[in-house]
Every structure is written in structure tokens, then in C-alpha cells.
Design a protein that fits this description.
Layout (H helix, E strand, L loop, with lengths): L3 H28 L6 H7 L5 H16 L7 H18 L7 H18 L5 H21 L7 H25 L6 H20 L1
Helix pairs in contact: 1-7, 2-7, 3-5, 3-7, 3-8, 4-6, 4-7, 5-6, 5-8
Length: 200
């Protein structure tokens, strides 16, 4: 019971941070004004798409289920490569697989969660890197020309890391074998949503 209390506090903090991040994006969506600076625009961008939100949480869930030494490595690699992908999107360098990469990230990560499948470190890094490049490119290609690319990139990278932390918190909460089925069920739903997008 004592071991569960820090996990619950971590989870509550994660959800609180996400809620504060989502709230301004909802306000912007309803009043039509949009953020007035690059940081806010970048921060709200990953929170405005369910595909991005689910992928980022899935990365955190999957990293937490893998070996302890990569619980932080996988999210950090994702955010770093995503920043590079965002730069490619900002300069309009074409990446043909970006849209498919986003959809496949939902399907593959969801399937890995559902099957509780762990990959070798090199394969995990490669897979996460390709998905991060796709998501980053999508963020960068949709950046308004009137705002700073550095503040915009900093915003969406921070929002992404917070979503990863939310996924890690959920995985720690459901680490008990009796609750592991909830994580597997979430993986099924994430993969299902990816398949739905692929069929569109």
C-alpha cells in the first residue's frame, strides 16, 4: 500500500499538468483566436489531435513496461527526434511517409502494449525514432509563418514530454499484475483507433 501512494500522487500530478495544458487549447478552439505567440501555439498543437495525444501516452506506457534503464531513454529520444522532424517540417522538406508514420505509430504501439511485447533496445530506438520524426514533421509543417520556430518547437516538445509522463504514471499505477489488463485494453483501443484512421 505504501508503494502505491507515490504512484498515485505521480499520476494525479500528471493528469493535473495535462488538464492545465488542454484547457487553454480548448479555449482557443472555441473562440477562434488561437495562441498569440509561438510557445503557446506549439504547446497546444499536440493536445489538439487525438492521434498525437494517444501516441505520446502510448510511448510513456510502453517505455514504463520495458526494462527500467530505458523508461526515460525512450521518451527522451522521442522528443529529441521529434524536434528534428519539426525542423524538417518548418523548412518544408518533404517526407512522404509522415502521415502514414503517425497512423502506424498508433497501430504498432497499441499492438505492443496489447501483447506486452518488449523489443531489443536498438529496435525500440529505431521504431520510436521513425514515429517521432513523423509526428514532429506534422507539427513543424503546420507552424504559422508569423511566429518563432524555436518557441513553437519548445512548446510542442514540452507538451509531448508531459504526455509521456502521463503514460509513465499510468503504467506505474497499473503495474500490479491484477491491473495489467487495463494497459492491454488501452493498447487494443489505441491500435483500433489507428486502424480506423488508416481506413479513412
Amino acid at each position: 500500500m505504501k508503494n502505491l501512494i507515490p504512484q498515485l500522487k505521480f499520476l494525479q500530478l500528471s493528469f493535473l499538468v495535462i488538464a492545465f495544458g488542454i484547457f487553454p487549447s480548448l479555449v482557443f478552439a472555441h473562440n477562434g483566436a488561437g495562441p498569440h505567440n509561438g510557445w503557446l501555439h506549439g504547446f497546444s498543437h499536440p493536445l489538439n489531435g487525438l492521434d498525437h495525444v494517444l501516441t505520446m501516452i502510448a510511448v510513456g506506457l510502453w517505455a514504463a513496461q520495458a526494462h527500467s534503464r530505458i523508461i526515460w531513454l525512450i521518451p527522451l529520444i522521442f522528443v529529441t527526434v521529434m524536434g528534428f522532424g519539426g525542423l524538417l517540417g518548418m523548412i518544408s522538406l518533404p517526407i512522404a511517409f509522415a502521415e502514414y508514420g503517425i497512423t502506424l505509430s498508433l497501430i504498432v504501439l497499441g499492438a505492443l502494449l496489447a501483447c506486452r511485447k518488449h523489443l531489443p533496445l536498438s529496435a525500440s530506438i529505431t521504431l520510436v525514432g521513425l514515429f517521432a520524426l513523423s509526428h514532429g514533421y506534422a507539427h513543424g509543417s503546420e507552424m504559422p509563418q508569423s511566429i518563432s520556430m524555436f518557441s513553437y518547437a519548445g512548446g510542442f516538445m514540452l507538451a509531448t514530454m508531459l504526455l509521456h509522463l502521463c503514460g509513465i504514471g499510468l503504467a506505474l499505477l497499473f503495474r500490479n499484475p491484477a491491473r495489467a489488463n487495463w494497459v492491454r485494453f488501452s493498447g487494443i483501443m489505441i491500435a483500433f483507433y489507428g486502424g480506423f484512421l488508416l481506413a479513412q
